[in-house]
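Dear Dr. H.,

I hope your travels went smoothly. While you were away I took the liberty of generating a structure for the chain from your last submission, since the lab meeting agenda had it listed for discussion. I wanted you to have the full record in hand beforehand rather than looking at slides cold. The sequence, exactly as received, is reproduced here:
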Amino acid sequence: MKRLALVLLLVACASVPESPRVTVDAFLAALDTGDAVVGELFTEDATVFFPMNDRPLRANGRGEIAAVFASLFAMPGYRGGLPAPEDLRVQTSGETALVTFQNANPNVTSRRTFVLRREGGRWRIAHLHGSNIRSSN
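The corresponding predicted structure, in token form, is as follows:
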């Protein structure tokens, strides 16, 4: 009987879909450690606006997005240590979710907007928009 109860509990837990926040947290952890798994968190047709200083960059599709992150992680001096998101907000509507937050320091405020889509019970990033606002100091 105990064994059946354990099996039922495991099945119930496995059927609970993850939240959009779990996917965003996984993205931030992968970004923080330079883990190539970051590409797996995107839909096949995803888009990303990267907030590059000298030239904005739009990447289209999971493969292109993963390649941009791989080149970012390979840059000399790449380091994690990202600050925790401030004012994180999750809004869901059916199979779509919007997650927004920012990080600030004396030199720049970084804002991020994620659009997620639930596919097969799992939330994946369909679009990521990053922007940085530099201080005028």
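Two observations you may find useful: Residues 47 and 75 are 22 Å apart (CA to CA). Helices lie at 2-15, 20-33, 62-73.

With kind regards,
E. W.
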